[in-house]
Amino acid sequence: MKTPILVTERLILRPLNVADTEEIYRNWSHDPEVARFMSWSVHENIEVTREWLRETEEHLELDSAYDWGFERQSDHMLIGSGGIYYREDREMFVVGYNTMKSCWNQGYTTEAVKRILKFAVEELHQERLFSYHAKENPNSGRVMEKAGFYYAKDSGYDSMDGKTHFEAKEYLFEGKKDNGNKTI
User: Fold this and answer.
1) Whether the Cβ atoms of residue 2 and residue 64 lie closer than 8 Å to each other
2) Which residue from 25, 68, 85, 143 has the fewest beta carbons nearer than 10 Å?
3) Does the pLDDT at position 180 exceed 50?
């Protein structure tokens, strides 16, 4: 299924594209505070962001990866991104997200994650998803809890470049059943 456009009260979740390069680089991909606990490293230059977006565009029609930019409806600014990615080793999707620093603690990330979960349950018929955060980043755990995840176990993850290992907390989300219909 092609990555669809999703709408929340304040956000439009839309597929990212190369035309978003400058805005994403300016707003969060080069910010060391945003990248601090992510598996990806801070983008040292705009070309790193552009290459990531090229790859993202190539995967728009995959059934195993759905990436969205979080566009604020009030001013159409991209304030973050996130998505779900199927993990064969876990036989479920993992949820990931990040938001530019000036938009932290305003509920945008939780709003986006809730909508992504609704899509996963209602459109992809997923019953379980997982996510994790660095123990040093409890705010991400609060986003997960507000979105309906529950703590499952301690774990860890490595940065994509293999230079950093993070001690982590892992969370699970289970679509609830009400009269046989999945709801969240």
Assistant:
1) no
2) 85
3) no
Amino acid at the residue 22: E
Give CA torsion, residues 41, 57, 23, 47, to 10 deg: 50
- Model confidence over 57-67: pLDDT tens digits? 988 888 999 99
Specify the pTM: 0.91
Element (DSSP H or E) covering residue 145: helix 138-147
Q: Calculate helix-pair angle for 138-147, 108-122, nearest 10 degrees.
A: 50
Q: For residue 12, give the nearest of 104, 79, 102, 57 by alpha carbon.
A: 79
Q: How confident is the model at residue 159 (pLDDT cuts 50, 70, 90)?
A: confident
**84 and 175 Cβ atoms separated by less than 8 Å:** no
> CA torsion angle for 126, 127, 133, 137 (degrees, to 10)?
110
* CA distance linking residue 158 with residue 154, whole number of Å: 14
Tokens of 140: 């991400």
E-strand spans in 41-180? 65-72, 78-87, 92-99, 128-134, 150-158, 165-174, 176-178
CA-CA-CA-CA dihedral for 51, 109, 90, 180, to nearest 10: -130
